[in-house]
Amino acid sequence: MGHRGINTAVFVQVRLDSARLPCKALLPLKGGPVIQHVMRALKPVRADYHVLLTDKHSTEVLNYLAGDEGFDVFSGPADDVLERYYLASRFYGADTVIRATGDNPLVSAYYAERILTLHREERADLSHYIGIPLGTGVEVINSRALETARNKAKDPFEHEHITTYMYRHRDIFKVMEKEAPPEATFKKVSVSIDTGKDYILLRSIYNDLYNGSPVELNSLISWLKGRF
């Protein structure tokens, strides 16, 4: 499954004790809870490993859901997410990490693979699309860059948000921020779930667009343009 011998891992960070919207990963949408839609959306991404990265308090519940979707569950520090990613990359021997989050059920596998290809072509350390609807994209991270950030980052914020150190130190990391193609660009609305209002929007989207398979980005953007 790997790419020319390179181990690639899809890592989804998720915890069940979110402060602003508790257990948001388990909130129901048409077809299943949020985290199940996240996994189903990312499973088509060609990678050696698909893993939920969580803490010990969330492991039991997530194990139950992950098994049905072909995902592993890896437990690491609750608040030091950078360390959690570093430990997981070492455990799975991943050279390249596709970072996604458990509050983005509308993440696009197609554009995850496109940015992964560009990341490799450019030999970047960190890559992501600009302009893609917030909540549909991923970050691609070179594991060596991940280790460097883990070893050098001192600010607790840089450990809670794993790529912040890299963005702050572009002199030592090659950061590629690629403009999304016009058909994939929509900046007006976030489709990530962080508040109750976000959840209401996502329920509307799924009620209208979900038909048993992940919602494609072109369908989502057409729906959003019709309302915003």
Explained architecture:
The chain has 228 residues and is an alpha/beta fold. The protein has one domain: Spore Coat Polysaccharide Biosynthesis Protein SpsA, Chain A (Alpha-Beta Complex). Helix content is 39%, strand content 18%. The protein has nine helices and nine strands. Strands 5-4-1-6-8-7-9 form a seven-stranded mixed sheet, with helices on both faces. Strands 2-3 form a two-stranded antiparallel sheet. Strand 4, helix 2 and strand 5 form a beta-alpha-beta unit. Helix 3 crosses helix 5. The chain starts with 7 loop residues before the first strand and ends with a helix. The N terminus is likely disordered.
In a few lines, what is going on in this structure?
It is built from nine helices and nine strands. With 228 residues, it is α/β, with parallel strands linked by helices.
In oligomeric terms, what are we looking at?
single chain
Largest β sheet strand count, sense and barrel closure: 7 strands, mixed
Report the β-strand fraction as a percent range: 15-25%
CATH topology term: Spore Coat Polysaccharide Biosynthesis Protein SpsA, Chain A
Q: What is the annotated CATH architecture?
A: Alpha-Beta Complex
**Number of DSSP helices?**
9
Task: Extract low-pLDDT stretches.
Answer: 1-5
Number of E-state strands: 9
CATH superfamily: Spore Coat Polysaccharide Biosynthesis Protein SpsA, Chain A
Work out the helicity level: 25-40%
- What's the CATH class, please? Alpha Beta
Molecular shape: globular
Topology pattern, helix = H, strand = E: EEEHEHEHEHEEHHHEHH
Q: Radius of gyration, Cα only, in angstroms?
A: 17 Å
Strand order across the largest sheet: 5-4-1-6-8-7-9
